Amino acid sequence: PAPLQLSSVNLERLITDTLKFLHHQPLFRGIRLVLNMEPETPAITADANQVSQILTNLLLNAAQATEQGGITVTVGKVKFKDQVSIRVTDTGEGIAADVLPHIFEPFFTTKRGKGTGLGLSITEAYLRSHGGDITVDSRPGRGTTVEVILPMRQVSQPAVEYAEVLP
Predict the structure, then answer these.
(1) Strands 69-77, 83-90: pairing kind
(2) Of the candidates 51, 46, 61, which has an alpha carbon nearest to the alpha carbon of residue 109?
(3) What is the DSSP string of the chain?
(4) Parallel, antiparallel, or unpaired: how do β-strands 133-139 and 143-151 relate?
(5) Would you tell me which of 31, 74, 114, 151 could form a disulfide with 87, CB atoms 3.0–4.6 Å apart?
(6) What is the reported pLDDT for 167?
(7) What is the pTM of this model?
(8) What is the β-pairing status of strands 143-151 and 83-90?
(9) 121 within 8 A of 104, measured Cβ to Cβ
(10) What is the C-alpha to C-alpha distance for residues 103 and 145, in angstroms, rounded to an integer?
């Protein structure tokens, strides 16, 4: 990922804007999109473009797995930690147990000809660059919940020093 462009991010605004944009895409026709925002969810320090891309990737995957039904995005502060949680839950087909360990591998896809297999590997890389985490809970026939955990503030990282080596 590119270096982080950090700013204060209002998650409610960012997620609402992302949902509004995607709601009009053909893939989301017939799918109910719901946002459950815990009151007083704090703003976070993050790269807004990367967080938006993370959410977009998760929502696109959820929509591709959900022909009818809904997708719920639940957002709130993690109790007793300086972190926020974003959960994307779909009513789709779920992910088979033998496929689940591979979903973050670059170019891995189950969407024969319809996906690049890069969405979740990019999502994971963006989360790593933020010091975040991602977990997936899925059962075939019961849908999938993907939870993203992001720190509220970014810990400054020391600058990398390059040493010039002379022959």
Answers:
(1) antiparallel
(2) 61
(3) -PPP-EEEE-HHHHHHHHHHHHHTSGGGTTEEEEEEE-TTPPPEEEEHHHHHHHHHHHHHHHHHH-SSEEEEEEEEEPTTSSEEEEEEEE-S----TTTGGGTTSTT--SSTTS--S-HHHHHHHHHHHTT-EEEEEEETTTEEEEEEEEESSPPPPPPPP-PPPP-
(4) antiparallel
(5) 74
(6) 47
(7) 0.86
(8) antiparallel
(9) yes
(10) 14
Cβ-count burial of 145 within 10 angstroms (0-12 exposed, 13-18 middle, 19+ buried)?
Answer: middle
Distance of CA 72 to the CA centre of its chain: 13
For 85-143, what is each residue's pLDDT tens digit? 999 999 998 988 888 877 887 777 766 556 666 778 889 999 999 999 999 999 888 89
Q: Are the C-beta atoms of 148 and 86 separated by less than 8 Å?
A: yes
Hey, which residues does 146 pair with through a beta bridge?
Answer: 88, 136
Tens-place pLDDT, residues 25-34: 999 988 999 9
User: Contacts by 155-158 with C-beta closer than 8 Å and gap 24+?
Assistant: 155/131
Show the tokens assigned to 139: 């059962």
Residue 65 tokens, joined:
């797995």
Can you read off the two tokens belonging to residue 138?
Answer: 């899925």
- Residue 28 one-letter amino acid: F
> What distance in Å separates the CA atoms of residue 53 and residue 122, rounded to the nearest whole number?
9
